[in-house]
Amino acid sequence: MKFNRKTAGKGIIILNLFTIAVFLLVILKILPYESISGGQLDSYEAAVRTATTSIVMIIYGIPVVAAASGLVRVKAYKKFYISWLIFALILMAVLFFEASIIGVIVVSFGLPLIAVAAGVIEYRQFNLASKIYLWLSFFFACLNTLGNLFGSTWFEKIIMGLVTLIQAMLYFYLARSNPKRKHRKG
After folding, report:
1. CA 155 from chain center: how many Å?
2. Is residue 69 packed enough to be buried (19+ CB in 10 Å), middle (13-18) or exposed (0-12)?
3. Centroid of chain to Cα 2
4. How far is Cα 55 from Cα 42, in angstroms, rounded to an integer?
5. What average pLDDT does the chain have?
């Protein structure tokens, strides 16, 4: 298997889906709620709120990663990304009222990329918006990895620490690489 931008994007999406599964297992009480958030949550209800917010944030990020990694041709999915832009703005408002500042920040740095994909911002700005999103995602994945490594459970330290470390490496690869330009036939 060749490792390229699309492979890195698929890897991030697969790891995000794994993370969603972990949060769902906590919500369904299959995994103990201490398995998330560094074991710092004081109740199952707090874990459900954290897991639900995290699931929504991850779902929000999947189309953003798909666009940034070149998995989808954004011009072909313009209508989808217009809807996703509206979803992102609503999500930001909800997160703001829930006092989830990190959530607002994460959504806001994906907004320019979605706006380009939706055609609201000129397509020439796509690479810049993509780079900003990917570097910030790398930074947050690194912070998440540190949080996992200092977590109180072995599950967070080993399993989730490894997941977020791999995500950080994939975001780093995407942020450093340049999308291939299509050569026009003269």
Report:
1. 21
2. buried
3. 23
4. 20
5. 84
Tokens 């380009």 belong to which residue?
116
Q: Are 45 and 59 in contact (CB under 8 A)?
A: no
22 Cβ contact list (under 8 Å, min separation 6): 31, 35, 36, 160
8 A C-beta contact, residue 93 and residue 139: no
Is the pLDDT assigned to residue 70 strictly greater than 60?
yes
Distance CA 126, CA 120 (A): 11
Rounded-to-integer distance, Cα 140 and Cα 113, Å: 17
Global model pTM greater than 0.85: no
DSSP 72: S
